[in-house]
Amino acid sequence: MSQLSASESRFVSVEGVRLHYQVHGQDTGGLPVIFTHGGGPGSTAWSNFRLSAGAFAAGYRCYFLDFAQFGGSDRVPVEGPLFTWHARKLLGFMDALGIRRAHLINQSFGGGVALRLAADHPERVGRLIAIGAQPVDQGALQPLPLFGKHAATLISDYYLADGGPSLNKMRKLLQRYELHDDSRLDEENLRLRFAASNHPGYLQLLHIPGAFGEWENLLPLLHQVQAPTLLCWGLHDWFGSIDVPMMMLNRLPDGHLHVFGKAAHHVQSECPDDFNRLALGFIGADQ
Questions:
Q1: Is pLDDT above 60 for 1?
Q2: What gap in Å lies between CA 129 and CA 132, rounded to an integer?
Q3: Phi/psi of residue 11, each to 5°?
Q4: Does residue 207 belong to any structural domain of this protein?
Q5: pLDDT tens digit string along 124-157?
Q6: Which residues span the domain enclosing 223?
Q7: In percent, how much of the chain has pLDDT > 70?
Q8: DSSP letter at 64?
Q9: Domain of 252: which CATH number?
Q10: d(Cα 144, Cα 183) in Å, to the nearest integer?
Q11: Is 258 an active-site residue?
Q12: What's residue 211's pLDDT?
């Protein structure tokens, strides 16, 4: 597995919000690939997908985009339904860079944003991969742990309790919530996640009522997603059991599901070679 280093930071303004992104790879004539990240503390597109960058950049122009409130992008409040708000910014990002159509590869929260964009603007999405995405308000068999009392303070505990963000707290968070095998924790990713989380602008958002927008249940809209969609799920995902992607699969017109038996929420971090082969095969199926 070849690895790349982070590239030069680039910025674009969308509806007055400055978004940070990085670019790898060259235009080889196919659709570009846009990577987006999850919603955990310190998440960025690069840290979430750095172990995939080399494999994809060999054949695709790749964009690693940080959503507003994350990474190098502006820390601004979200207004209204959160997936819709971020999907508008993602669409604006594509417009600003002249990207007519792209494949979207997304971790968790980013999968909800991508599905919202694909539902509203099917002509802009080639193929879509969503890892551990759960843009729903419940599972088919049980409530989502994310909405239970044990996870209700996950974000505030990291940022506000016991002196605020720290490298040790980030280590525990990644091992508890994102990985099945603690030994798969990547020290470089740990460093990147902590550095990105230790931002005063995010602390300010925590004190603004409604700054993170309104939750959206996208289940009623999934029938509008025309793009072939691959749902990737870790069997040990803390945030929901396999009934969650199965419920989504039943609504997608062209849905596919792959379960990784030895992974949790970040399958591309725990099983990078397996994920890269699967994902490259999926987005290259039409070429």
A1: no
A2: 10
A3: -140, 150
A4: yes
A5: 999 999 999 999 988 888 888 887 877 778 898 9
A6: 10-283
A7: 99
A8: E
A9: 3.40.50.1820
A10: 26
A11: no
A12: 96
Report pLDDT digits (tens) over 176-209: 999 999 999 999 999 999 999 999 999 999 999 9
Count of domains in the chain? 1
| Residue tagged active-site, from 24, 86, 199, 265 | 265
> Residue 44 in contact with residue 37, Cβ under 8 Å?
yes
Residue 4 lies in a domain: no
Q: Is residue 118 part of a domain?
A: yes
pTM of the shown model: 0.96
Distances in Å between the alpha carbon of 270 and those of 16, 100, 140, 190, 274? 37, 32, 26, 14, 9
CA dist 162 and 100 (Å) reads 46
Collect all residues with Cβ–Cβ distance below 8 Å to 128 and sequence separation of at least 6.
103, 104, 105, 106, 114, 115, 118, 225, 227, 228, 229, 230
Residue 148 CB neighbour total at 10 angstroms: 10
**The predicted structure's pLDDT at residue 4:** 78
Give bridge partners of residue 14 from the DSSP assignment.
Answer: 17
User: Backbone phi, then psi, for 23, in 5-degree steps?
Assistant: -130, 135
Give the span between the Cα atoms of 130 and 123, in whole angstroms. Answer: 18
